[in-house]
Q: What sequence folds into this?
């Protein structure tokens, strides 16, 4: 396949950035989207240009590191798919593809398609954990957990922290991410003692980072590669309200 | 061969006495650090995977002043996140005859009698606490309807001792460790530096006292000093370019420590995983693993006839060879990885492989779907099936998957003693970065166990003993400056080299060479070829590599080039190690050393030792650590 790429290039956080057009040829439909960018980058390096900077690591949809807005959609149009899992067979020959970084004020651009998502870590620091010291935990079977609860907690826990939800949200809200974390722990008995303080602290940190409020537009779940459902946000709001009383 | 032999290693610091008491004895013998002093002691931890993340969190909580580094944008993305199948523990929750002793026994045997008994026994003991710890942190392991934890069996084990969280066990365990780590960051005991890469180790007065790192965003070269350094930087399977490892995995941290004096043990022990999606094209950047748990229900087969290119549906049952079930009736599809991988290679070498290039075998779920129903199969393996479909465009519910072995894990790594300390005092190495517990082969679900055992339980005790024996004096300013200059020179050299090939293209070529000559099967001839070619290619790399961009910016081309340079040096040592070990064991298969049935033939008389290599300007120096087996009788491994 042959493609025309319009890629966001921004040298540094201070640089204003612009779209640059590249032509890539002989792309195999079996390539992943990132492999297609590798091909472009190899060429750019040999031409003495700066390769397009983008984040990635596992390349199998689990680390949450890759992420770019492809043709206006976070991680591209394929549902429940990270950028690294997106394959070129889903594009037409001679297609024009625009590629941009996540855009949200709390995710400043570092370079090209690389953004700074450390705000997510600070939300976790605010309370996204169970306070247990290492080395003295009770036997794992001392606390049975209903299978349905464990399964539901697991579903929420599969969030990979990629930030697509923020990028897709018209308000730049981090509610889906934060709600996934809160829901995971609030469904388990281990999470109960700190349930209130956790919800309160994490929601407040999310606001302090400058993420927007949630108006239930649902763009977040539409792009979420892990299918985190919107009702986690309702769960978060309930926990938060209860904790704030 | 260009190596010399040095003094053997005689003391591994393992306590004496009955094996079940050794760890207790060591713990009790370890000096404690006064809580008020802990705050003044600085520990650097490189890496935030299961090993580094759990270690940094635990050390922070104990009160030490911890500084932690990773090359990703957040600690939660370490390669451990990708582990799929599960984690072993000798809980015997099923009452199926498991015990600490049995896990110990299976691991020593599975490692082909090339692991240390004392270490492995401790690992089996501690495994029990890991599950408790993770559950207390809220890791949502799979549960039964009664509310208790579910387990499954995994390659190489006949008991059901593997705990799992669907196909995302590594993710859930890592999130547990990450959350514990973030808690310590919030508490101020751990200072986290993401997007930083360690480029050298600082040695002062013979001790590890700090690191030189590069801030990968600004390019700034920084020095960080400490009382002890912990490397938890993962494995080096990416030397093969194509592997199941995350793209960023590399050897730089341990290789540069090796050049500073830490011995590198058993570099040639590479685990090839039997169930990966086969290579489909030249452009491919990585291989994807399909969890081995699939072999619990999936049946592996190839056509009986060589060159049979009929579509699957047209090959009748009696013209299919379920070769694992045929050759290894006791374990069937659940034989350990090295056995399953080699068996797949053998049938493909006979011309019976399937798919493009004949490099694949079928992993068939038709029977399982008939027996359990599509829903049940989907519940168990749905995410894996989906992953397969995404990559290949084929539907595994209606046609068998194709799998082929791929490089997966490296059992070699920096040599450590029982305390997990390297040959450089004050330098500790944990997780996949060390060589210690798996011998020549790693059984499924035991890397996660080892990483967490090291990080949560073992290291926090042993490093305390080292620190309690301090303080270790002022740090030599000249040593720091020298390390920093070395790092800068290397970067300058790469950037000023205006060549015609990219670092990636060299990496690809090196990887192919390693796979072909030092891969699933090695021969004296192939290894000698590799040893001729690698230095030539490395020389060409240094003359002809092209790295664009500047030093003082985010520069991914520069990052890659630095790592590829280290892979060249490591590759050479791997081949030397593989060449000198004229026996077959575990993941190291020397074609010259096999029995009449084509099974790996060990040579215990000559090779029951760990090969620990010291870096030398005139070539590596081999130090042998003899392995003694007092509890498990060395025997030919058989799964028949
Ligand atoms: C696809 C896949 C599936 C697997 N499934 C299983 C399984 O089911 N069960 C099992 O037991 N094992 C499994 N494994 C193996 C297991 O995941 C790994 O062996 C284990 O997670 C390694 O953990 P670690 O903490 O040692 O290193 P890693 O998780 O690799 O962490 C390395 C860390 O070091 C950092 N780092 C590296 N170099 C530097 C540097 N120079 N400077 C700064 N930071 C650096 C990285 O940023 C990272 O944080 C699997 C592996 C793969 C690839
Ligand atoms: S909720 Fe979904 S989109 Fe948002 S960070 Fe988590 S996985 Fe990514
Ligand atoms: S690179 Fe890990 S999710 Fe895409």
A:
């Amino acid at each position: 396949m042959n493609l025309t790429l319009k890629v966001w290039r921004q040298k540094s956080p201070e640089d204003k950035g612009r779209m640059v057009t590249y032509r890539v040829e002989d792309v195999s439909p079996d390539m992943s989207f990132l492999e297609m960018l590798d091909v472009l980058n190899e060429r750019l390096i040999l031409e003495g240009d700066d390769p397009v900077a983008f984040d990635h690591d596992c390349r199998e949809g689990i680390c949450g590191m890759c992420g770019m807005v492809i043709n206006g959609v976070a991680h591209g149009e394929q549902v429940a798919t990270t950028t690294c899992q997106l394959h070129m067979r889903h594009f037409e020959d001679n297609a024009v593809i625009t590629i941009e970084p996540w855009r949200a004020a709390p995710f400043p651009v570092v370079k090209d398609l690389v953004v700074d998502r450390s705000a997510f870590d600070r939300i976790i620091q605010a309370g996204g954990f169970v306070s247990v010291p290492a080395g003295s935990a009770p036997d794992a079977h001392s606390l049975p957990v209903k299978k349905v609860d464990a399964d539901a907690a697991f579903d929420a826990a599969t969030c990979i922290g990629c930030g697509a939800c923020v990028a897709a949200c018209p308000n730049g809200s981090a509610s889906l991410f934060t709600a996934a974390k809160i829901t995971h722990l609030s469904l388990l008995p281990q999470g109960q003692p700190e349930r209130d303080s956790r919800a309160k602290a994490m929601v407040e940190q999310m606001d302090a980072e400058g993420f927007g409020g949630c108006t239930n537009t649902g763009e977040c779940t539409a792009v979420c590669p892990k299918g985190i459902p919107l009702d986690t946000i309702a769960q978060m709001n309930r926990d938060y309200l209860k904790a704030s009383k | 061969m260009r190596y010399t032999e040095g003094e053997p290693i005689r003391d591994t610091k393992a306590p004496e006495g009955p094996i079940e008491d050794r760890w207790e004895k060591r713990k009790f013998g370890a000096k404690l650090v006064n809580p008020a002093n802990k705050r003044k002691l600085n520990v650097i931890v490189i890496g935030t995977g299961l090993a580094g993340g759990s270690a940094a969190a635990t050390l922070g909580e104990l009160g030490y002043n911890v500084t932690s580094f990773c090359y990703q944008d957040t600690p939660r993305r370490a390669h451990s996140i990708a582990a799929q199948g599960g984690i072993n523990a000798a809980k015997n929750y099923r009452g199926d005859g498991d015990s600490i002793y049995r896990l110990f026994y299976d691991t020593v045997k599975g490692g082909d009698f090339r692991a240390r008994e004392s270490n492995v026994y401790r690992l089996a003991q501690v495994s029990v606490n890991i599950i408790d710890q993770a559950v207390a942190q809220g890791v949502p392991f799979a549960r039964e309807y009664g509310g208790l934890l579910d387990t499954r069996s995994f390659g190489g084990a006949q008991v059901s001792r593997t705990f799992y969280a669907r196909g995302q066990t590594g993710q859930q365990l890592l999130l547990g460790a990450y959350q514990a780590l973030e808690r310590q960051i919030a508490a101020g005991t751990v200072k986290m530096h993401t997007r930083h890469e360690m480029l050298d180790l600082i040695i002062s007065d013979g001790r590890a006292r700090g690191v030189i790192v590069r801030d990968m965003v600004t390019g700034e070269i920084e020095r960080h000093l400490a009382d002890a350094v912990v490397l938890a930087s993962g494995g080096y399977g990416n030397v093969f370019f194509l592997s199941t490892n995350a793209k960023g995995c590399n050897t730089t941290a341990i290789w540069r420590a090796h050049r500073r004096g830490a011995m590198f043990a058993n570099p040639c022990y590479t685990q090839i995983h039997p169930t990966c999606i086969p290579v489909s094209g030249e452009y491919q950047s990585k291989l994807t693993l399909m969890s081995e748990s699939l072999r619990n229900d999936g049946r592996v087969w190839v056509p009986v006839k060589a060159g049979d290119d009929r579509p699957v549906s047209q090959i009748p049952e009696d013209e299919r060879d379920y070769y694992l079930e045929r050759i290894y009736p006791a374990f069937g599809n659940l034989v350990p990885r090295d056995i399953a991988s080699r068996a797949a290679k053998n049938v493909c070498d006979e011309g019976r492989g399937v798919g493009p290039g004949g490099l694949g075998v079928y992993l068939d779920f038709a029977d399982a779907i008939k027996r359990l129903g599509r829903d049940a199969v989907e519940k168990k393996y749905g995410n894996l099936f989906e992953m397969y479909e995404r990559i290949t465009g084929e539907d595994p519910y209606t046609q068998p998957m194709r799998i082929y072995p791929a490089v997966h894990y490296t059992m070699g790594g920096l040599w450590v003693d029982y305390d997990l300390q390297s040959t450089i005092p004050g330098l500790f190495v944990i997780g996949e970065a060390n060589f210690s517990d798996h011998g020549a082969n790693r059984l499924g679900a035991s890397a996660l166990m080892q990483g967490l055992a090291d990080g949560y339980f073992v290291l926090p005790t042993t490093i305390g003993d080292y620190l309690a024996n301090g303080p270790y004096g002022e740090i030599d300013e000249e040593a720091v400056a020298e390390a920093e200059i070395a790092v800068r020179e290397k970067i300058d050299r790469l950037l000023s080299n205006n060549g015609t090939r990219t670092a990636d293209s060299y990496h690809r070529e090196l990887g192919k060479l390693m796979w072909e000559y030092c891969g699933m099967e090695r021969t004296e001839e192939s290894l000698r070829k590799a040893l001729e070619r690698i230095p030539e290619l490395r020389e060409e790399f240094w003359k002809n590599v092209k790295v664009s961009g500047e030093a003082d910016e985010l520069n991914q081309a520069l990052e890659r080039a630095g790592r590829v340079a280290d892979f060249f040096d490591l590759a050479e040592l791997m081949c030397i190690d593989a060449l000198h070990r004229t026996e077959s064991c575990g993941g190291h298969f020397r074609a010259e050393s096999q029995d009449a049935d084509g099974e790996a033939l060990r040579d215990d008389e000559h090779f029951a030792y760990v090969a620990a290599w010291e870096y030398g300007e005139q070539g590596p120096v081999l130090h042998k650590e003899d392995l003694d087996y007092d509890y498990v009788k060395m025997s030919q491994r058989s799964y028949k």
